[in-house]
Amino acid sequence: MGDLGALRARLLELDRVVVAFSGGADSAFLAAVAHRTLGPERASALTAVSPSLAPEEEEECRSLATEWGLRWVPVLTDELADPAYAANDGQRCFHCKSALMDVAVPVAEAEGATVVLGVNVDDLGEHRPGQQAAAERGAVFPLVDAGFTKADVRAASHALGLRTWDKPAAACLASRLPYGTPVTLGALAEVAAAESALRRLGFRQLRVRHYGDLARLEIPVEELALAVERREEVVAAVSGAGYRYVTLDLEGFRSGNLNYHPGLEPLPPWSKDNRRFGQDIRP
């Protein structure tokens, strides 16, 4: 079980930190605790701003920084300029985190600080090559050191009065593209627009998986009936983002279900053999 005292002790041991701050529950919790433990003189939050960051998430970082008094620095990154990232193979997250560290390390070095990420214990069991990239560049994972799971982060956030305690899981927009599908500005923009439109309809937890002109929507199973009931609104919202076909995944929301599986090649979403991409209904 996560130990808040151990987390604070670890941050005090590090003395000065730059928190990689995406606005999600984990990084928000870490940024808030670092700020409260070390103060703004020794703790800052850095957000990598790029086309793979949803516009709402950048605004959320800005809003949280203002609310909590964080010393916040937004820095532009350009992952798409890296052909290895744009190719979108199983190591995409490695290249993405490398781009983050390229901008975070100089900031940390200027302050004599350590870059810290909101990686928790549960993340260690998933395919997260970005963790390797960050660790190789000297990043530290204080939540792991203090034994925090995802559930622990939410419980502790609630206890501390952080409004991010029940924030739906988020991930970079590129994670909506199956491995092997090139990451482009156009694809990221379509995903961002479609998800923003669906959130305006009231769907909080969702993913728009991108397959060219086909969108596969993942929402919680308990909201599937509502999505069907509001079918015309949902179709209009997603079609308005540029998609020709709109499908609803009957297995519901599954965070990270496009994560790379070694030895497996991506299959089309409607393939009868494809259990990783869910059960889509081909239009």
Number of helices: 11
Spatial arrangement of strands, main beta sheet: 3-2-1-4
Helix-strand category: alpha/beta
Give the N-terminus to C-terminus distance in angstroms: 46 Å
Rg on CA atoms, Å: 19 Å
Q: What order do the SSEs take from the amino end to the carboxyl end, as H and E?
A: HEHEHEHHEHHHHEEHHE
Total beta strand runs: 7
Shape summary: globular
Stretches with pLDDT under 50, minimum 5 residues: 260-283
Oligomer: single chain
Q: How much helicity do the residues have?
A: 40-55%
Percent in strands = 5-15%
Biggest sheet overview: 4 strands, parallel
- Arithmetic mean of pLDDT: 90
What can you tell me about this protein's structure?
This protein is an alpha/beta fold and 283 residues long. It is built from 11 helices and 7 strands. The strands form 2 sheets. Strands 3-2-1-4 form a 4-stranded parallel sheet, sandwiched between helices. It has a 3-stranded mixed sheet with strand order 5-6-7, covered by helices on one side. The longest helix has 20 residues, at 92-111. The protein is globular. It starts with a helix and ends in a 35-residue tail after the last strand. The model is unreliable at 260-283 (pLDDT under 50).
Write a brief structural summary.
The chain is α/β, with parallel strands linked by helices. It has eleven helices and seven strands. Helices cover 41% and strands 12% of the residues.
